[in-house]
Amino acid sequence: MMEWTVEVEEQEMLLREFVGLKGISKRGLTAIKYEGGGLFLNGEEVTVRKKIQPGDTVKIYFPEETRSGSLVSENLGLEVLYEDQWLIVVNKPAGMNTIPSRDKPRGSLANGLAGYFDYHQIAAGVHIATRLDKDTSGVVLAAKYAHVHHLLSEMQKLNQISREYTAIAEGNVLLDEGTINQPISRDPSSIITRIVDAEGQRAVTHYKKVAAGHAHTMLSFQLETGRTHQIRVHTSWLGHPLAGDDLYGGEVRFINRQALHCRKLMLHHPVTGEELEVVSPLPDDIKELKKNVGMNG
């Protein structure tokens, strides 16, 4: 349920326009009307054609959340970093898919969220807003309700959800900070890999040097765009593939997956407007990698 009080500047507005300004899409309104939700003005159920006045109370009840029948609910012991009635942020371990596939219908983060909600008797759907590659660890954001996922999607289009990544790259990166602005496309010889390609989609990665080892560099990254494998492709193009990332030229001598971790998530809450910052500590395998390549701290 969502609730608002009408302000003076919203006087005589149609409810349709009012809830649209609050982020309720036409699709959402249709679901509310036909799938078990409700729209109430001062406690009375009304249609979107009703006009509102200052001080009126508007409440929306969303239809009950349903999940895909193919999503298996599993207790995977997820580490929850943040949770409220609208959102959940979890720490995805390396080696876990974000969503299930036909070949691997179990063991994904989505399966684990379904199991978490069922165990805690939370009537929520599984709406993942930020995904990570299977072997990338760190912060993942999900919405409990379809409408909140819609709000997050709109925020992503406006670059209003920011993530900071930490990685260890091979070699000694010379610049303390820089920007890689190189378009990315699918590799025509592979169904998995991506390449820097002048005809590809715009891809912009900002990086800063965090620490240096004997022959490795720890970097932090922020993305302007969200292309598949973007950090991995860009660091490889730079001549400094990520440690462990054998798909893009990295060695698996010290770590057997790409040394890439989504460390921080930053956004304004899509419902309350509260500023959120959620941090995930470095996992043990990257800490061990740091030590093995001569990085202190």
Class inferred from helices and paired strands: alpha+beta
Arithmetic mean pLDDT: 94
| Major sheet summary line | 10 strands, mixed
The overall number of domains is: 3
Strand content range: 25-35%
What is the global morphology? Answer: elongated
| CATH level-4 homologous superfamily of the largest domain | Pseudouridine synthase
Order of helices and strands: EHHEEEEEHEEHEEEEEEHEEH
Q: Write down how many β-strands occur, each being a DSSP E stretch of 2 or more residues.
A: 16
Q: Fraction of residues in helices?
A: 10-25%
Query: Could you name the CATH class of the largest domain?
Result: Alpha Beta
Distance between the termini: 46 Å
Oligomeric state as shown: single chain
Number of helices: 6
Within the CATH hierarchy, at the fold level, what is the topology of the largest domain? Pseudouridine synthase
Give the second-level CATH assignment, the architecture of the largest domain.
2-Layer Sandwich
Report on the architecture of this protein:
- The strands form three sheets. Strands 5, 6, 7, 8, 9, 10, 13, 14, 15 and 16 form a ten-stranded mixed β-sheet that branches. Strands 1-4-2-3 form a four-stranded antiparallel β-sheet, with no helix packed on it.
- The protein has helices spanning about 15-20, 25-35, 110-120, 145-155, 230-235, 285-290, and strands at about 1-5, 40, 45, 55-60, 80-85, 85-90, 125-130, 135-145, 160-170, 175-180, 185, 195, 205-210, 215-225, 260-270, 275-280.
- Strand 13 and strand 14 (about 215-225) form a beta hairpin.
- The longest helix has 12 residues, at about 145-155.
- About 35% of the residues are buried.
- It starts with a strand and ends in a 5-residue tail after the last helix.
- It folds into three domains: about 1-60, Roll (Structural Genomics Hypothetical 15.5 Kd Protein In mrcA-pckA Intergenic Region, Chain A); about 65-160, Pseudouridine synthase, CATH 3.30.2350; about 165-260 and about 290, 2-Layer Sandwich (Pseudouridine synthase), CATH 3.30.2350.10.
- The chain is built from six helices and 16 strands.
